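Hi everyone, sorry if this is the wrong subforum. Our group has a chain we'd like a structural model of before ordering constructs, and none of us has done structure prediction before. Sequence below.
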Amino acid sequence: MATLVAFNAHPDDECLLTGGTLARAAGEGHRVVLVVASDGCMDAVPEGGAPRLAELRAAAGVLGAHRVVHLGYADSGHGADLYPDPPDRQRFLRADPREAAERLAGVLREERADLLLGYDRNGGYGHRDHVRVHQVARLAFARAPVPRLLEATVPRETAARLARLLREDASRLESMFLPRAEITHAIDVRRYAARKQRALAAHRSQTGGKLPGTLVGLPPRLFRALLGREWFHEVPRGAAGPAAEAAAPRP
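Answer:
Right subforum, don't worry. Here is the predicted structure as tokens:
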């Protein structure tokens, strides 16, 4: 049995690019640990706890994950403005990447992880918290004794085709995700697509958005056809050392 640690920016990100891989790993008997940087809240956490973390725990149960860890940061938001930190915690983008990497590395050491999942250099579609996940994952990979790092992505050409099918603007994808030539792993997750769709539906607060809502509402056969494969770029260990330290911005 191997241990896979998937590092994501926000609750629901674990489903979109890697949900099938996580469900397949759990289904094949491996230990799956979900680590999320942000709780998905823009303001102070409500008295009953962050709602999106509760949704994440529900989705983790659907995927078969064994543990959920929140690194303690707030959502940085998406747009021109970076709002002040909430009174109870720091926004992920303002955190020192080295400090965040050490928190992640602590989980990797504790779990004796065999594999870490992060995001590609563009943070997928470019959300600033996703780009920071890419940086922090590479720093943690350089610090912790985890043998392999795979960065979740989508072939840019495939993403453009999917965007057109969903009537999204495909021209924006020119600087998103990775070209097909950089993909090192394509995982067949069609057998786990129904579980991936149910896990995405567990993020009820997000399914009102255009893309999550569209995906949850797809007929299962179409969902499996469109999202039954997941892609990764494997990072050679030598590529995540001094270069990652130098590239990590200071807050």
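For your construct planning: The longest helix spans residues 128-143. The beta strands are 3-8, 31-38, 67-73, 115-119, 148-153, 185-188, 229-234.
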